[in-house]
Design brief:
disordered C terminus, two-stranded antiparallel ribbon, 6 helices, mainly alpha, f41 fragment of flagellin, N-terminal domain
């Protein structure tokens, strides 16, 4: 009889310890938000979670590269459009000068505007992104263009380097427009020529200069359109990778992280079970002691 009671009490103690362990485990999971506290809890889930982390790391790296790529391309695109606007405004000015009704003083005033526009165009050609020249080809640390204030000649880079960035594994895209692009030199030369013609009051040859301005404008506009298309491709890739990133994060969370609401319900149930086990064990132990004494 005593052996039977001892076995029953031992079983009760074992049940109590198991109930207490369940409570402790749930409390730890809730406090840490982790449902895999040690490898033995879910070996298969842990392996899957580690594999997802590897994928996430690759996706995160690609998104960081894309962010850098977008910043570079946004700066380049904005600068190209500024250059296009300069060529466009100078064409309008040239047409105004070519009508033959302006005085020498008026032409001199327009010449000053052209000189300012040339300075602005060269400055655009030397646009930087985080200290690097976006139109420098591979020579991103060297200023692509230099304007002589004495002669208005512009010396420029001959670097034709095409910068390729990887936006996802195995996929690269050209992110730059090298300063060797012909619209730069064409535009600079046309602006200097227009300045000289206005300074000298020689408006008869402006039509040829306007043709060069048109050519520069068209080429720069085309370069801007090509860059815009590449930017859209990068944006599409970014959107797809962000969706993939979200999906991976959700998968990882479902494996590793605790559902707080569900865990709270399970903890409440486990606590009730633990208290019930304590009550039962207490009654059985008291009854066994009473039987022994009597």
């Amino acid at each position: 009889m005593r052996i039977s009671e001892q076995m029953r009490i031992s079983a009760g103690i074992s049940a109590m310890e198991n109930s207490k362990q369940a409570v402790d485990t749930l409390e730890t999971e809730i406090s840490t938000s982790d449902q895999i506290l040690q490898p033995s809890d879910n070996p298969e889930g842990l392996e899957q979670a580690m594999r997802i982390q590897t994928y996430l790391s690759a996706v995160n790296n690609s998104l960081q590269d894309i962010n850098s790529t977008q910043n570079w391309m946004d700066t380049s695109y904005s600068a190209l459009n500024d250059f296009v606007n300069v060529m466009s405004s100078m064409r309008v000015l040239g047409l105004q000068a070519a009508n033959g009704t302006l005085s020498s003083t008026d032409l001199q005033g327009l010449a000053s505007q052209v000189q300012e526009a040339l300075t602005e165009a060269v400055s655009i050609g030397n646009t930087q992104q985080e200290g690097e020249y976006v139109f420098g080809g591979f020579q991103v640390t060297q200023q692509p263009f230099t304007l002589s204030t004495a002669t208005l000649d512009v010396t420029g880079t001959n670097d034709t380097g095409q910068m390729m960035n990887e936006i996802e594994p195995g996929v690269t895209i050209q992110i730059n427009v090298p300063g060797s692009a012909s619209f730069f030199s064409t535009g600079f030369t046309a602006l200097k020529q227009l300045y000289t013609e206005l300074q000298n009051g020689d408006t008869g040859d402006i039509d040829a200069t306007l043709s060069s301005l048109d050519q520069s404008w068209e080429q720069a506009s085309n370069a801007s359109a090509v860059l815009s298309s590449r930017m859209q491709e990068v944006d599409t890739t970014q959107s797809r990778l962000e969706d993939f990133q979200t999906n991976l994060q959700e998968q990882y969370s479902s494996i590793v992280n605790v559902d707080q609401a569900t865990a709270a319900v399970e903890l409440s149930s486990a606590q009730e079970g633990y208290e019930a086990t304590l009550t039962t064990l207490s009654k059985n132990t008291f009854q066994s002691l009473f039987d022994y004494l009597t």
